[in-house]
Design a protein that fits this description.
9 helices, alpha/beta, about 270 residues, Rossmann fold
Protein backbone atom coordinates (compact mmCIF):
# COMPACT_ATOMS: atom_id res chain seq x y z
CA UNK A 1 0.00 0.00 0.00
CA UNK A 2 1.30 3.47 -0.87
CA UNK A 3 2.11 5.96 1.85
CA UNK A 4 -0.68 8.30 0.75
CA UNK A 5 -3.19 5.41 0.88
CA UNK A 6 -2.08 4.53 4.40
CA UNK A 7 -2.54 8.10 5.57
CA UNK A 8 -5.95 8.17 3.90
CA UNK A 9 -6.89 5.06 5.89
CA UNK A 10 -5.68 6.64 9.13
CA UNK A 11 -7.62 9.87 8.48
CA UNK A 12 -10.78 7.85 7.79
CA UNK A 13 -10.40 5.97 11.10
CA UNK A 14 -9.78 9.20 13.02
CA UNK A 15 -12.74 11.01 11.49
CA UNK A 16 -14.99 8.07 12.43
CA UNK A 17 -13.82 8.20 16.06
CA UNK A 18 -13.37 11.90 16.80
CA UNK A 19 -14.83 15.27 16.09
CA UNK A 20 -12.05 17.13 14.26
CA UNK A 21 -12.08 20.92 14.66
CA UNK A 22 -12.64 22.83 11.41
CA UNK A 23 -10.01 24.99 9.75
CA UNK A 24 -9.73 28.40 11.38
CA UNK A 25 -7.15 29.87 9.02
CA UNK A 26 -4.47 29.17 6.44
CA UNK A 27 -1.35 31.24 7.07
CA UNK A 28 0.82 32.07 4.06
CA UNK A 29 4.08 34.06 4.45
CA UNK A 30 4.85 37.30 2.69
CA UNK A 31 6.54 36.72 -0.66
CA UNK A 32 10.28 37.18 -0.16
CA UNK A 33 12.57 35.13 -2.39
CA UNK A 34 15.64 35.99 -0.32
CA UNK A 35 14.18 34.74 2.95
CA UNK A 36 14.12 30.97 3.56
CA UNK A 37 11.49 31.54 6.26
CA UNK A 38 9.04 32.28 3.44
CA UNK A 39 9.11 28.63 2.37
CA UNK A 40 6.64 27.39 4.99
CA UNK A 41 2.93 27.93 5.60
CA UNK A 42 0.44 26.54 8.10
CA UNK A 43 -3.12 25.35 8.58
CA UNK A 44 -4.65 26.38 11.91
CA UNK A 45 -7.62 24.47 13.35
CA UNK A 46 -10.26 25.96 15.65
CA UNK A 47 -8.55 24.46 18.71
CA UNK A 48 -5.23 26.07 17.59
CA UNK A 49 -3.65 22.82 16.43
CA UNK A 50 -1.15 23.71 13.71
CA UNK A 51 -0.14 21.79 10.60
CA UNK A 52 3.03 23.17 9.01
CA UNK A 53 3.63 22.54 5.32
CA UNK A 54 6.30 23.38 2.72
CA UNK A 55 5.36 25.64 -0.21
CA UNK A 56 8.63 25.91 -2.15
CA UNK A 57 8.71 22.64 -4.09
CA UNK A 58 8.96 24.91 -7.10
CA UNK A 59 8.41 28.58 -7.87
CA UNK A 60 5.06 28.01 -9.59
CA UNK A 61 3.57 26.44 -6.46
CA UNK A 62 4.95 29.20 -4.27
CA UNK A 63 3.50 31.86 -6.57
CA UNK A 64 0.12 30.10 -6.64
CA UNK A 65 0.09 29.99 -2.82
CA UNK A 66 0.52 33.76 -2.79
CA UNK A 67 -2.34 34.29 -5.23
CA UNK A 68 -4.89 31.86 -3.75
CA UNK A 69 -7.81 33.11 -1.69
CA UNK A 70 -7.65 30.81 1.32
CA UNK A 71 -10.74 32.35 2.91
CA UNK A 72 -12.76 29.60 1.20
CA UNK A 73 -11.04 27.00 3.40
CA UNK A 74 -12.16 28.56 6.67
CA UNK A 75 -14.72 26.40 8.46
CA UNK A 76 -13.93 23.41 6.26
CA UNK A 77 -13.38 19.93 7.69
CA UNK A 78 -9.61 19.29 7.39
CA UNK A 79 -10.20 15.54 7.04
CA UNK A 80 -12.12 16.25 3.81
CA UNK A 81 -9.04 17.93 2.33
CA UNK A 82 -6.66 15.37 3.81
CA UNK A 83 -8.48 12.56 2.01
CA UNK A 84 -7.23 14.08 -1.24
CA UNK A 85 -3.62 13.70 -0.15
CA UNK A 86 -3.06 11.16 -2.94
CA UNK A 87 -3.78 13.82 -5.55
CA UNK A 88 -1.02 14.15 -8.16
CA UNK A 89 -1.34 17.93 -8.05
CA UNK A 90 1.61 19.26 -6.02
CA UNK A 91 -0.31 22.35 -4.90
CA UNK A 92 -3.03 20.07 -3.49
CA UNK A 93 -0.41 17.81 -1.90
CA UNK A 94 1.04 20.75 0.03
CA UNK A 95 -2.35 21.61 1.49
CA UNK A 96 -3.29 18.00 2.17
CA UNK A 97 -0.11 17.38 4.14
CA UNK A 98 -0.81 20.57 6.09
CA UNK A 99 -4.22 19.10 6.98
CA UNK A 100 -2.76 15.72 7.91
CA UNK A 101 -0.23 17.46 10.15
CA UNK A 102 -2.90 19.65 11.76
CA UNK A 103 -5.13 16.63 12.44
CA UNK A 104 -2.16 14.68 13.80
CA UNK A 105 -1.20 17.52 16.13
CA UNK A 106 -4.83 17.71 17.31
CA UNK A 107 -4.80 13.96 18.08
CA UNK A 108 -1.50 14.28 19.94
CA UNK A 109 -2.88 17.19 21.97
CA UNK A 110 -6.27 15.59 22.67
CA UNK A 111 -4.58 12.48 24.04
CA UNK A 112 -1.83 14.35 25.94
CA UNK A 113 0.83 12.53 23.98
CA UNK A 114 4.25 12.79 25.60
CA UNK A 115 6.67 14.35 23.12
CA UNK A 116 10.37 13.95 23.75
CA UNK A 117 11.31 17.59 23.37
CA UNK A 118 14.90 17.85 22.29
CA UNK A 119 17.48 20.27 21.01
CA UNK A 120 19.03 17.47 18.93
CA UNK A 121 18.34 18.58 15.36
CA UNK A 122 20.15 15.50 14.02
CA UNK A 123 17.26 13.13 14.69
CA UNK A 124 19.07 11.27 17.49
CA UNK A 125 21.61 9.86 15.02
CA UNK A 126 24.45 10.07 17.58
CA UNK A 127 27.00 10.50 14.81
CA UNK A 128 30.64 9.72 15.50
CA UNK A 129 33.90 9.30 13.58
CA UNK A 130 33.08 5.71 12.61
CA UNK A 131 29.84 6.61 10.79
CA UNK A 132 29.10 7.13 7.13
CA UNK A 133 26.07 9.42 7.26
CA UNK A 134 23.56 9.76 4.45
CA UNK A 135 21.56 12.96 4.18
CA UNK A 136 18.52 13.04 1.89
CA UNK A 137 17.92 16.69 1.10
CA UNK A 138 20.48 19.41 1.67
CA UNK A 139 20.24 20.74 5.25
CA UNK A 140 22.74 23.67 5.15
CA UNK A 141 22.79 24.30 8.94
CA UNK A 142 23.50 20.62 9.63
CA UNK A 143 26.03 19.76 6.93
CA UNK A 144 29.13 21.06 8.66
CA UNK A 145 27.99 19.72 12.05
CA UNK A 146 27.66 16.22 10.67
CA UNK A 147 30.83 16.47 8.61
CA UNK A 148 32.74 17.42 11.75
CA UNK A 149 31.49 14.34 13.60
CA UNK A 150 31.21 11.60 10.98
CA UNK A 151 33.80 9.69 8.99
CA UNK A 152 32.01 10.67 5.79
CA UNK A 153 28.85 12.50 4.69
CA UNK A 154 26.89 11.65 1.54
CA UNK A 155 24.12 14.06 0.51
CA UNK A 156 21.41 12.99 -1.92
CA UNK A 157 19.90 15.95 -3.78
CA UNK A 158 17.62 16.56 -6.75
CA UNK A 159 19.12 19.92 -7.67
CA UNK A 160 21.96 19.44 -10.15
CA UNK A 161 23.50 22.78 -9.25
CA UNK A 162 24.29 21.47 -5.76
CA UNK A 163 26.37 18.54 -7.00
CA UNK A 164 29.97 18.74 -5.83
CA UNK A 165 32.75 16.81 -4.23
CA UNK A 166 34.13 18.16 -1.00
CA UNK A 167 36.89 16.86 1.24
CA UNK A 168 34.32 15.98 3.90
CA UNK A 169 31.17 15.31 1.91
CA UNK A 170 29.74 14.26 -1.43
CA UNK A 171 26.59 15.69 -3.04
CA UNK A 172 25.04 13.29 -5.54
CA UNK A 173 21.89 12.62 -7.57
CA UNK A 174 22.34 8.84 -7.30
CA UNK A 175 20.45 7.19 -4.40
CA UNK A 176 22.65 4.07 -4.65
CA UNK A 177 25.28 5.99 -2.68
CA UNK A 178 23.00 5.62 0.36
CA UNK A 179 23.72 1.88 0.35
CA UNK A 180 27.13 2.56 1.89
CA UNK A 181 25.66 4.59 4.79
CA UNK A 182 25.06 3.17 8.25
CA UNK A 183 22.97 6.13 9.46
CA UNK A 184 20.61 8.22 7.33
CA UNK A 185 18.84 11.54 7.88
CA UNK A 186 15.89 12.23 5.57
CA UNK A 187 13.97 15.46 4.98
CA UNK A 188 10.24 15.30 5.68
CA UNK A 189 9.61 16.76 2.19
CA UNK A 190 10.03 13.19 0.88
CA UNK A 191 6.65 12.43 2.46
CA UNK A 192 4.88 15.13 0.49
CA UNK A 193 6.47 14.31 -2.86
CA UNK A 194 6.16 10.57 -2.11
CA UNK A 195 9.76 9.69 -2.86
CA UNK A 196 10.24 8.08 0.55
CA UNK A 197 9.69 4.48 -0.57
CA UNK A 198 12.19 4.86 -3.41
CA UNK A 199 14.70 6.32 -0.95
CA UNK A 200 14.18 3.55 1.61
CA UNK A 201 14.88 0.93 -1.06
CA UNK A 202 18.52 2.08 -0.84
CA UNK A 203 18.64 2.30 2.96
CA UNK A 204 18.52 -1.38 3.87
CA UNK A 205 22.11 -1.34 5.20
CA UNK A 206 21.41 1.52 7.60
CA UNK A 207 21.39 0.84 11.34
CA UNK A 208 19.36 3.97 12.03
CA UNK A 209 17.08 6.15 9.90
CA UNK A 210 15.56 9.45 10.99
CA UNK A 211 13.07 11.73 9.24
CA UNK A 212 13.17 15.33 10.40
CA UNK A 213 11.86 18.75 9.47
CA UNK A 214 9.23 21.35 10.36
CA UNK A 215 6.69 19.50 8.21
CA UNK A 216 7.16 16.17 10.05
CA UNK A 217 4.09 16.80 12.20
CA UNK A 218 2.24 13.71 11.05
CA UNK A 219 1.35 10.56 12.96
CA UNK A 220 4.37 8.28 12.51
CA UNK A 221 2.65 4.90 12.07
CA UNK A 222 3.16 4.38 8.30
CA UNK A 223 6.81 5.40 8.60
CA UNK A 224 7.56 3.25 11.61
CA UNK A 225 6.01 0.39 9.63
CA UNK A 226 8.74 1.12 7.06
CA UNK A 227 11.40 0.77 9.76
CA UNK A 228 12.08 4.47 10.21
CA UNK A 229 13.57 4.76 13.71
CA UNK A 230 12.94 8.41 14.62
CA UNK A 231 10.57 11.20 13.55
CA UNK A 232 11.74 14.71 14.41
CA UNK A 233 8.97 17.30 14.18
CA UNK A 234 7.95 20.74 15.38
CA UNK A 235 5.17 21.51 17.85
CA UNK A 236 3.67 25.01 17.98
CA UNK A 237 2.92 26.02 21.57
CA UNK A 238 2.49 29.80 21.10
CA UNK A 239 0.11 30.07 18.16
CA UNK A 240 -0.22 33.87 18.15
CA UNK A 241 3.55 34.36 18.06
CA UNK A 242 3.89 31.64 15.43
CA UNK A 243 1.28 33.27 13.16
CA UNK A 244 2.98 36.64 13.53
CA UNK A 245 6.37 35.09 12.78
CA UNK A 246 5.36 33.00 9.79
CA UNK A 247 3.31 35.81 8.26
CA UNK A 248 6.24 38.22 8.41
CA UNK A 249 8.99 35.71 7.48
CA UNK A 250 10.55 35.85 10.93
CA UNK A 251 12.23 32.96 12.74
CA UNK A 252 9.71 30.97 14.77
CA UNK A 253 11.98 30.92 17.81
CA UNK A 254 10.09 30.75 21.09
CA UNK A 255 6.79 29.90 19.38
CA UNK A 256 7.81 26.28 18.73
CA UNK A 257 9.54 23.30 20.27
CA UNK A 258 11.33 20.52 18.39
CA UNK A 259 10.50 16.99 19.38
CA UNK A 260 11.35 13.41 18.52
CA UNK A 261 9.24 10.25 18.49
CA UNK A 262 11.11 6.95 18.59
CA UNK A 263 9.71 3.79 17.06
CA UNK A 264 10.82 1.65 19.99
CA UNK A 265 8.80 3.83 22.40
CA UNK A 266 5.69 4.29 20.26
CA UNK A 267 2.66 1.98 20.10
CA UNK A 268 -0.02 2.99 17.61
CA UNK A 269 -2.35 5.88 16.85
CA UNK A 270 -5.18 3.40 17.40
CA UNK A 271 -4.62 3.47 21.15
CA UNK A 272 -5.79 7.10 21.04
CA UNK A 273 -9.31 6.02 20.07
Amino acid sequence: MSLSSEYLEIINKISESFFIPPIKDVIIPLNDERNKNSNFAAIILDDNSVGIFFINLNQNIKDLMQKTNFQVYKGMDPSFLARKFSSNNLFDKCLRLGCINAISQYIFKKNKFHFDYTTDSLGLLDADETDIIGMVGFFPPLVQRIANKANRLIILEKKKELINKNKNWLVTLNPKHLESCNKILITSTTIMNETIDDILFHCTNAQKISIIGPTAGFLPDPLFKRNIDVIGGTNVHDVDLFIKSITNNLKWGKAVKKYTIERKKYKSFEIFS
